[in-house]
């Protein structure tokens, strides 16, 4: 059976670029009735909306900053006001700003937890509450990170935010299983996105060709692509994966805990 989201209205945060945009596009290709595009970049958002419309889905742009308190409520209010219902929520918006035990500031801690854990939680709260009132099933997917298992020193705070959202995912799935609300997550491995290339080449000073060299050293000679994550996302949002809930899938080419003999 093919994984599809026919007739569903899907809200995807962080969908003006990168993985979030790829998820939105894959949902449109897989039959979504409508997609709510949410992000900060109006121009990129309008381009995404145009692409989704060309693929046959109605698309609606919500420009909102989830680093600001209450962003989740503003996004959900606009989305539900436009369509009357949301069938699936994908929490993909996030920041990967570096911060270790030695140099992380209180400001960084607050900013990362705000967008990576707090606002996703309150989007889940709004989504779950609405589905229960409407007595409808639904799907929630949280885009996490392999760093939720434990990341490099410079990713200490970031890793903590993803670990927090991972636990929230499982707790919420357990609490709402009899509401038929499926809640799953993906621990995404190293992915080749425009933002990753910019960060490695410019912000971290590794140069324009470094990421390609690093990709060649991976087991499958490449990094994950946004399309890889999008394909798995559609599977988890589709009825094909039902009744699976409370699962955190490691989408990675390195095996966690594996030891070479």
From TrEMBL:
Stored InterPro entries: NAD(P)-bd_dom_sf (IPR036291), Sc_DH/Rdtase_CS (IPR020904), SDR_fam (IPR002347)
Signal peptide: none
Pfam families from the UniProt entry: adh_short_C2 (PF13561)
Keyword annotations of the record: Oxidoreductase
PROSITE patterns: ADH_SHORT (PS00061)
GO molecular function: oxidoreductase activity
Record bears the keyword Glycoprotein: no
Assigned protein family: Belongs to the short-chain dehydrogenases/reductases (SDR) family.
Protein name, per record: SDR family oxidoreductase
Source lineage: Bacteria, Pseudomonadati, Pseudomonadota, Alphaproteobacteria, Hyphomicrobiales
